[in-house]
Design goal:
By secondary structure, the protein is of the alpha/beta class. It folds into two domains: 6-61, Arc Repressor Mutant, subunit A, CATH 1.10.10.10; 69-252, 3-Layer(aba) Sandwich (Rossmann fold). 37% of the residues lie in helices and 23% in strands. The strands form four sheets. A seven-stranded parallel beta sheet has the order 6-5-4-9-12-14-15, sandwiched between helices. Strand 14 (228-231), helix 10 and strand 15 (249-252) form a beta-alpha-beta unit. Helix 8 (155-161) runs parallel beside helix 9 (187-198). The protein is globular. The N and C termini lie far apart (54 Å).
Length: 257
Amino acid sequence: MSKNPPRGRRDTLGRRLDEGQALVATELALEFGVSEDAIRRDLRALATEGRCRRVYGGALPISPASTPMKKRIEEDREGKRALASAAATLIKRGELVFLDCGSTNLALAGHLPRDRSITVATNSVAIASVVLDRGIPLILIGGIVDANIGGAVDPTAIQALQNLNIDRCFLGVCAVSAREGVGVFGADDAAFKRALLEVSRETVALLTNDKIETRARHRVAPLSRIASLVVEHGVDGYTLETIKKAGPVVIIAPQSA
């Protein structure tokens, strides 16, 4: 009998997927001392549960954005700078701007205009630090900080949102698709973002290409609730048209260096 019964092995594989790891069937078969067919059955079951995307020879996480914030900051820096530069042009004079947690919004914090008399609110520790260093008026949403997300999304943070009238919200997202809308991996994060949408006049989301047409466990809102999507250069035309038909204006960032 295998030392790794199917349920326990499957839970282990699920945790690795949640951490953003790609899974290779041949390597896992050796690791767990079982056949590749047994591993493939595990991956099929996880795919049925919506926890991975099957590919030849293994499986991939539903969205790379399931990895911790600390790791995501280091990924695709040039692409995120291009998105941030394009998104900053949307901000109008005198607005109260909310920057939700996320590595792309962290890049946006460094591109915020200092000549438009804006105020920034955020629930992100890292974003708050950048905004403060840039001398822009700051409202920090408090609560218990979730280290994986990089900010507060608990009931205290949600309650603090109720005191704000936000002109423009830059929503952090993990996955976007025309069919399933905007999704994230944490239930608390999803609840916070739904509350954020309710107090925001206009909502924008910045998307790296690896988040487009992927899905996450918790649905935040349909794409019709998002006013604008800022996407990287290189998204195929069919995907762009499908997204546009779902409601948002799509802005394509210049190609990064």
